[in-house]
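User: Hey, quick favor. My workstation is busy. Could you predict this chain's structure for me?
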Amino acid sequence: MAELPPVEYAVAVERYLAASGLAEGSRRIYRIGLNTWAWALADRPAPTGPERRRARPPVLPLALLDHPDAAARLRAAVDRRSADTDPRTLNRELSTLRAAVAWWRARGWIATDPATGLRPHPLPAASAAPLTPDELRSLFALRAPLREQTLWHLLHESGAAIETVLALNTDDLDLPHRLTLPRPGRTPVHWQAGTARLLPLLVAGRASGPLFLTDRRAPAGTPAPDRCPHTGRARLSYRRAAELFTGLTRPLATTSTGWTLRRLRTSL
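Assistant: No problem, here it is.
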C-alpha cells in the first residue's frame, strides 16, 4: 500500500528525519531547526535561547509550504534571525530546510519550493579569524569561571564545532585518552593538555547528563537529555555561551563588541 502523504508539517518533519539515517543526537538538532521554520510559516516570531529547544511549534498543514506567501514569510524570518543568530547556524538550518523540502517534493507531498530564493548568509571574515597566540594567552589568563575556561580550551584544542561540543554529555568522555567515546554517526572529539587539566574538575563526579550546564536549575518542561540528573541544571545553550564569551573578552578586544566563539577554533 502506498504511503499516504502527511497532513501536518510536524509529521512530515518526523518522516524526513526517520528516513535520513542520522544519529539521534543529529536528528534532535535537525528537528529544532525545522521546527523553527514552522514559526515563520505561521507568521509568528520563533522563540530564542533555551526556549527554542523546548517550545512547541505551531500546528500547521504541510500544504502551507505551497502558499504564495510562504517564500516571503521565510525570507522575513531569515532577516529577523540574522540579527542575533550565528551565520553558520542560520546557514545550516537553511540547508536543512532546503533538503527537507526537496525530499517532500520528490514524494509529491508539496508542489513548490519556497526556500528557492533563500541564500546562505555571508560569514564575517575578520571577526572569524582565529585568535593569535598572544590573544589566546590573554584569554586563558582571564579570571573566568571553570565552565568557561573548560569550554574555551576544548573548542580551541579540538577544533570541533561549537554545537558539537555543547551537545556533549559527561558519559561521552574518555578522560584518560583525551577523546570522546565512539558513538554511531559521530566523529570523536580529541583534546590536549589544557582541556585534560580542566575537564575532571568540571565533571566533579557527574556520571551522566550534559557536560556544560547553566548556572540555574532547568525550567519545568526541559527535556531529560538537556537536564542534569545530579544538579537539575540545564544544558548550556549556544546563545548563552556566545554572550558570555563576548562579554568576558570585551576588555581584550580592539573593538567594543568583544570576540566571537568561532575565533577559538584552530581551523575554520
